[in-house]
Specification:
- With 273 residues, this protein is α+β, with helices and mostly antiparallel strands.
- It has 2 domains: 107 residues; 150 residues, Reverse transcriptase/Diguanylate cyclase domain (Alpha-Beta Plaits, 2-Layer Sandwich).
- It is 58% helix and 14% strand.
- It contains 8 helices and 6 strands.
- Strands 2-3-1-4-5-6 form a 6-stranded mixed β-sheet, sandwiched between helices.
- α6 packs antiparallel against α7.
- It is elongated and about 95 Å long.
């Protein structure tokens, strides 16, 4: 009798542990993927709930009937069905949650208008490059004459110009470099593993591409550029600010120029022919 009671107690503990695990899994599914949210996971969630209920009922009958074992073959079908459905639901929940997290992270690092990386993305990449001591150049650029586009043609036309400028920046750099829009009509180019003296050549290519753009009203566009390197700040914020200040020196000198944060030199660019 004592041995029988011990076996019954052990069976009860095992069954209760499995039921608890299934309940936790169902709770996880319900919390992570609320029923109101559309998606293909709904069927998995419903199956997990149904088979878990079947398993609980079957195991309940095992505990209530004398002489039956928890390993009885009749109860393994709902057991494995419940475990499979629960595991499938868990995988679906995890992958959907991971996918949503990745999409949210991507949206947080991308400018929605141009689909270029945004300021946060540049700062994160800049921090990584700066920490390694690798040489780089950060080019900060602002469009000259862009206000006239918005004032005369409207913001829709201005948005189209910004999208086309984004394409110009993509075409002007290598795959390892990062073109980004940091706000308004301001953009940056992070040139990694490069000699900073090459920055004026890149700026000239960008200027040529921008000046080749045409608007419906024939408004001429140009740009001013500021260059900073890993020697111009101890953090991404300081380096971006140094390039920004250099860009304003180039703009105040008449535009179509590039200025260097460290030396203070300002040089004219050829731009489009």
């Amino acid at each position: 009798m004592g041995g029988g009671n011990t076996v019954t107690t052990e069976q009860s503990v095992v069954v209760l542990a499995i039921i608890l695990a299934l309940l936790v899994n169902m709770f996880f599914l319900f919390r992570v993927l609320p029923w109101a949210r559309p998606g293909p996971w709904r069927l998995i969630w419903a199956l997990a709930a149904l088979f878990s209920l079947m398993f609980m009922l079957a195991e309940g009958s095992v505990l209530s009937e004398a002489g039956m074992s928890a390993a009885d073959i009749r109860h393994q079908v709902p057991l494995f069905a419940a475990l499979f459905a629960g595991a499938a639901g868990f995988v679906i929940a995890y992958t959907q949650g991971y996918g949503m997290s990745e999409r949210s992270l991507s949206l947080a690092l991308v400018d929605p208008l141009t689909t270029l990386p945004n300021l946060r993305a540049v700062q994160e990449r800049l921090a990584s490059v700066h920490a390694t001591g690798e040489r780089f150049a950060l080019i900060y650029t602002d469009l000259d004459g862009f206000k006239r586009v918005n004032d005369r043609l409207g913001h829709a036309a201005g948005d189209e110009v910004l999208r086309r400028v984004g394409s110009v920046l993509r075409d002007a750099v290598r795959g390892a470099d990062i073109p980004a829009r940091v706000g308004g009509d301001e953009f940056v180019l992070l040139l990694v593993a490069t000699d900073p003296t090459q920055a004026p050549n890149v700026a000239a290519r960008v200027l040529a591409g921008i000046e080749a753009l045409t608007t419906a009203d024939g408004i001429a566009l140009s740009a001013s550029f500021g260059v900073a390197t890993n020697e111009d700040g101890d953090s991404p914020v300081e380096i971006v600010a140094a390039a920004d200040r250099a860009m304003y020196r180039a703009k105040h000198a008449g535009g179509r120029r590039v200025a260097f944060a460290r030396s203070g030199d300002v040089m004219a660019l050829a731009g489009a022919a």
